[in-house]
Amino acid sequence: MARLLYETHSHTPLCKHAVGLPEEYAAVAEARGLRGIVITCHNPMPDGFAPHVRMDLNEFGKYLDMVARAREAWDGRVDVRLGLEADYFAGFEPWLEKQLASSDFHYVLGSVHPQIAEFRQQYWREDPVEVQRIYFQLLADAAETQLFDSMAHPDLIKNETPHHWRPAQIMDEIRRCLDRVAAVGVAMELNTSGVNKVVSEMNPFPEMLVEIASREIPVVIGSDAHNPGRVADGFQQGLDLLSECGFTQVSYFVNRVRHDVDIDSARASLGGPTLERPDEMSG
User: Fold this and answer.
1) Which CATH entry fits the domain spanning 83-269: 3.40.50.12780, 2.40.30.40, 2.40.420.20, 3.20.20.140?
2) What is the pLDDT of residues 206-254, one digit of tens each?
């Protein structure tokens, strides 16, 4: 059976909350029947922006070298690619534009992280439902920059406001967000690590996936692996969920160009033993 899928969301120890080198992640990708893996560690940001969850500025070159070594070591077996998970925060667009132009990234994930102090200082409100609305507005703002290929874990706010998470009351805001995302052609991520979080379901939740499918927004599947054992974790279940929600294809990016794979073929291509699911590291 041909290998078809990539692990599209994985990290390195440089982000300070992950373990394992890219070579170790690639080994699990091979065992799981993947064609390749994209390393997408958290981007460095200026002025001490959330420094405890990302590589330092002076480590950026080390990150590029780390991925390049893994790519060379696994050449011909697993296609290791250079990616980045880049934070969107209003005002930092010029910084991101320059950073993303500095290297030949194969895939760029855009993220809005409501758990970091900077988000809480600027956007938190007494009403948690209003914070949820703000989050989805920012997600659309991020997509409209067109700096990113796909938006990561696109309902992450539910894990920061779990006791007030009732999606039905903000579906109009979510639909407006998705209309804006669809208009600029940015993909969305199905992040399988959500089952390990406070609200135990993949990101995004099924009703949002249905809305994404109805707008023909492409979806990329990724495990958000912060340790090698999580590579491709939940992919079979994720592909089943996508089918149930109206998708017939799943996507990945190489050279920042989207490639689509038939979900039935993707499901059949996965192999290897079922992996243990270690506790997910935050981020």
Assistant:
1) 3.20.20.140
2) 999 999 999 999 999 999 999 999 999 999 999 999 999 999 999 999 9
The residue assigned the tokens 């639909």 is 175
pTM of the predicted structure, to 2 decimals: 0.95
